[in-house]
Amino acid sequence: MPLIGLDWGSTRLRAMRLGAGGEVLELRESGAGASTLHGRADEFVAALDALVADWHALPGPVLACGMVGSQHGWRELPYADCPADASTLMRLSLNVDWRGRPVRLLPGLRCTTAAGAPDLMRGEETQVLGALQQAPALAEQACLVLPGTHSKWARVQGGRVTGFTTQMTGELFAVLRQHSVLGRLMPAPTQDARETRDAHEAFNEGVAAARDHGDAGLPHQLFSVRSLGLAGRIAPPDLAEYLSGLLIGHELRAGLAWRAQSGLGAAPLRLIGEPALCARYAQGLALFGAADTPVLSNTAPAGLWRLAQEGGL
Amino acid sequence: MPLIGLDWGSTRLRAMRLGAGGEVLELRESGAGASTLHGRADEFVAALDALVADWHALPGPVLACGMVGSQHGWRELPYADCPADASTLMRLSLNVDWRGRPVRLLPGLRCTTAAGAPDLMRGEETQVLGALQQAPALAEQACLVLPGTHSKWARVQGGRVTGFTTQMTGELFAVLRQHSVLGRLMPAPTQDARETRDAHEAFNEGVAAARDHGDAGLPHQLFSVRSLGLAGRIAPPDLAEYLSGLLIGHELRAGLAWRAQSGLGAAPLRLIGEPALCARYAQGLALFGAADTPVLSNTAPAGLWRLAQEGGL
């Protein structure tokens, strides 16, 4: 059976058409993220029509993951509690209506951190399941890292997601660069990543500072982005790389400690996500002694496929 | 001899008229901070005229500290290196011209952190000297905490500032509240601080989370502001208090560790600054076992007075 999959996040809508064997036949994308649609069902329907009206008549189920199921989404779905697998998620899924055609929305995942606070994800659980579909050996046990605005580190044991931890690394980078004093010394961002030797070294220097001196505290180390710039120790075009290294370094430091505390210190480590961002994380991980961490890119289609199979859609 | 003192920071200009014994006779303040004046001498002169043109004819020297001496200030002064005292600062001070009248600008202070990065301050060194003027017993050894946009923790030994560490706590709070996803769950800020029992508890909960679970990493703990809000564990009006507690808690955790590593674990600890903000830090310090930390407010006039005496102005 073919499938229409929707990876509907806060800022982007990614629609995919999968063939009867789960192969991706077509991908389309728009900026109609859930956070732009005011929690109104008619706006979600319109966003879907704007991107894939011509798919409405195609056969097969429609399955959607991500912020589309959040408080201000098309319809709010509860979170499934960890440990959870594909069947847990499908049990909590619910239909909404796309002009007479059902769209099955998936819930997010929730766990409790060591500090007793809840932690949450919506959408990444589908990418995790996709990774297990692509690389079944990981299902036994693995630590999966999904870098992003809100990075997720997920613990997989016995085919289930048993816990995870969120880090606001990407959002911190964006707000500090755009809105803090740290951005003032940096030139305007360009589309192209800097690939010079100096940029590379500035990134590594940031990672190493977090690795070796992170106890000094991130709020302290962030100020060094400014002081190293003012002192001429790092050139302005490379300061954003240093900041990126510092923030990713703090994430890796905390994430690897979480992994060890979770008893997964020896389990396979994998990066999942956009290749350029994952390459940056792999470079950072090498400085923490984890060389050549494999990268899985865009596992959402495989995850949606796996979930559709599980639910007998 | 009377003195005209200027505490000229990034965003505010504070002018004070001191009597022959150092007593404050008059204080005036404007929003003509150094960062608003484009590094142009004529704009600095105009800003001074707008606030205190009638002081131009008064007797006595004019002495200025803060960002007025920075790269984009009235004139750029170098930093004095730690260890430094009043005479070190006066030796590096320089005059600029206020319509035929000299204004003596003070340099900032620089030190090197344990990680080998430079750390910088401009203006706080004068507040530190003012504290030593007000409470001479602190000169032998003390750890002075100046909360703010960029908080400073200064180490005083033998009458000199021997080192310090900066934390971007206030700026992190502002940018996260105004520009990140964390602010979206919070109601618009009001002028009045929340003084309810729940607000107080949310602040304490944030401090305790940083104290007990800070190893999980600030980028992780910041996300809990969102997850605790979404889960209904902290009410929206109190989320900003929790965020404040979390950030101040991380500052205190790192600052107290820095103090201990500096060999000042038993030295007097003092807060210097705006009373309401210092009260918040004192509340946080109590949760770290440092109850009733004394507060010194607005020590800049005493510092400028001390420096003018030292320079024989």
Automatic annotation (TrEMBL), chains A, B:
<dbReference type="Pfam" id="PF05035">
    <property type="entry name" value="DGOK"/>
</dbReference>
<dbReference type="InterPro" id="IPR007729">
    <property type="entry name" value="DGOK"/>
</dbReference>
<protein>
    <submittedName>
        <fullName>2-dehydro-3-deoxygalactonokinase</fullName>
    </submittedName>
</protein>
<dbReference type="InterPro" id="IPR042257">
    <property type="entry name" value="DGOK_C"/>
</dbReference>
<dbReference type="InterPro" id="IPR042258">
    <property type="entry name" value="DGOK_N"/>
</dbReference>
